[in-house]
Specification:
alpha+beta; Mannose-Binding Protein A, Chain A; 10-stranded mixed beta sheet; 8-stranded mixed beta sheet; 23 strands; about 20% helix; about 30% strand; binds 2-acetamido-2-deoxy-beta-D-glucopyranose
């Protein structure tokens, strides 16, 4: 029963960096209900900044069977956006009348000034290629603006996006005729009011706006391309941001006593016989039933349900023995994602706290996870607990079953419910734990 811990990884934490987290909620809701749900539980309905984010989001939802809402809806006010990246540079012809309606921008090939045209007019265009030695390429086929954008995104990077007068001059010299550039005006607005210009519409959408289709969904059968749908249709949806009521955490610092040790050993008592007739709760989450948390880097396959709440009151050592006998181990939390899933299970415990695989060692004066990985940096201590908090020998880590689900130190002899983990898909286990 002896095992070794690599303490080094646990203590070299880079704190404060959080990846852009998406959460797929597989419950059908209309758009406004979905927005309320995301705002109550996370930050908001999802925003997508660029094609890379969209592609990795799409990879992580490849096993979801229904279309999903994102946070984009048709607003009242039309605003100019760049197809690729927003820049503040402007070079409009004087006297342009700019109504509150859809429009696209044309560059005058004789002087480089911009003017407005209907987006379905057919014109030649200039693409931008980030990897080519010649950045701007003239395409002389006449196309509507969206088809021109699609062409440039397929064969190059995007439509030309001059960010200053020198680049504008380059585009003009490339074109010499009137051409579309990557500037368009629409009324689509993000739920969190961010001004992100990125759009990922399906090319099969009709160009005339269909009445009442004022919300955007991700189409699973079209590699994540967006569709215009009626906001009253119940769909699955995507939220972003951290789970709410997640307090900020203090850094775990390396205590002086450990400077010369980067491994130690810990042996739970092997003489304990786990109690018999244990009742377990598997997959019994009732609210909301089918939440599937997923992050952009495709760990979805492994994370579905490998956490088991054991509704039995045991000491910390009994809990460790129980989990090792029946599953793999007591849960160790190395990420926000795992914290969220553990917290969700914990709400069904009958005790105020649940044991985690977290133990304090008097000998070296620090806290450690019994299952450690190099990636673990996440922590969620309640004030007065953890590395800066109250300490005594035989202290073990527990999570609050409700509220902020913060971690506290409790005497290992307390009797609490606990959460074990299983390897559902062992190939991916190292990604998760
Ligand atoms: C433009 O970039 C793409 C990659 O995005 C590359 O495959 C292609 O060859 C480039 N085109 C030209 C004309 O250089
Ligand atoms: C793709 O999904 C959309 C929206 O759900 C649906 O209208 C369309 O028929 C589907 N297309 C195919 C080829 O399955
Ligand atoms: C969504 O449903 C709620 C009632 O559950 C309703 O009040 C609201 O108007 C609906 N939203 C849309 C956009 O249909
Ligand atoms: C997933 O993302 C987390 C946080 O960004 C990272 O620590 C982890 O290594 C990633 N896993 C994979 C399989 O890429
Ligand atoms: C465990 O302890 C809690 C709180 O003391 C109690 O409500 C619950 O009934 C106990 N469960 C068992 C199985 O003894
Ligand atoms: C698109 C993609 O890479 N999806 C993968 C996500 O992970 C699961 C589980 O390993 C794979 O089966 C998918 O192919």
């Amino acid at each position: 029963m002896f095992f070794f811990l690599i303490i080094f990884g646990l203590l070299t934490c880079t704190l404060g960096q959080k990846s852009h987290q998406y959460h797929i909620i597989s419950i059908g809701k209309n758009w406004t209900e979905a927005q309320s749900y995301c705002r109550a539980t996370y930050t908001d309905l999802a925003t997508v900044n660029n094609a890379d984010e969209m592609n990795s989001l799409f990879k992580s939802i490849s096993d979801v069977s229904q279309d999903m809402y994102i946070g984009l809806y048709r607003g009242q006010v039309f605003r100019w956006h760049w197809s690729l990246t927003d820049t503040s540079y402007k070079n409009w012809k004087s006297g342009i009348s700019d109504g509150n309606q859809e429009a696209c921008a044309v560059m005058d090939g004789t002087n480089g000034k911009w003017f407005i045209d209907k987006c379905d007019s057919k014109r030649p265009f200039v693409c931008f290629n980030a990897t080519a030695s010649k950045k701007f390429i003239l395409i002389t086929d006449n196309k509507p603006w969206t088809d021109a954008q699609e062409y440039c995104r397929t064969f190059h990077t995007d439509l030309a996006n001059p960010k200053d007068s020198s680049e504008n001059q380059d585009v003009k010299n490339t074109a010499k005729i009137n051409v579309w550039i990557g500037l368009f005006k629409d009324s689509w607005t993000w739920s969190d009011q961010s001004s992100i210009s990125f759009r990922f519409w399906s090319s099969s959408l009709s160009s005339s706006p269909s009445s009442g289709q004022d919300c955007a969904s991700v189409m699973v059968n079209q590699t994540g391309r967006w569709n215009e749908v009626q906001c009253s249709v119940p769909l699955y949806f995507i939220c972003h941001g951290d789970l709410k009521s997640q307090p900020t955490t203090k850094p775990m610092t390396r205590p002086a006593a450990t400077q010369n040790h980067n491994t130690t050993s810990f042996a739970p008592s092997s003489s304990l016989t786990p109690p018999q007739n244990i009742t377990e709760k598997k997959n019994t989450d009732t609210q909301p039933t089918q939440i599937l948390h997923t992050t952009t880097n495709n760990t979805t396959g492994a994370v579905k349900d490998n956490l088991i709440l054991v509704n039995e009151n045991m000491t910390w050592l009994e809990a460790v023995s129980y989990c090792r006998k029946h599953h793999v181990d007591l849960v160790s939390i190395h990420s926000q994602e795992l914290q969220d899933r553990t917290a969700q299970k914990a709400t069904q415990a009958s005790t105020s706290h649940i044991w985690l695989g977290l133990r304090y060692t008097c000998k070296f004066n620090f806290w450690f996870w019994i299952k450690n990985t190099e990636t673990g940096c996440y922590q969620n201590w309640a004030p007065g607990h953890g590395p800066y908090g109250y300490k005594e020998c035989e202290l073990s880590g527990a999570m609050e079953s409700t509220g902020g689900h913060q971690w506290v130190g409790r005497p290992g002899s307390d009797r609490l419910n606990f959460i074990c983990y299983n390897c559902v898909n062992c190939q991916l286990c190292n990604d998760v734990f």
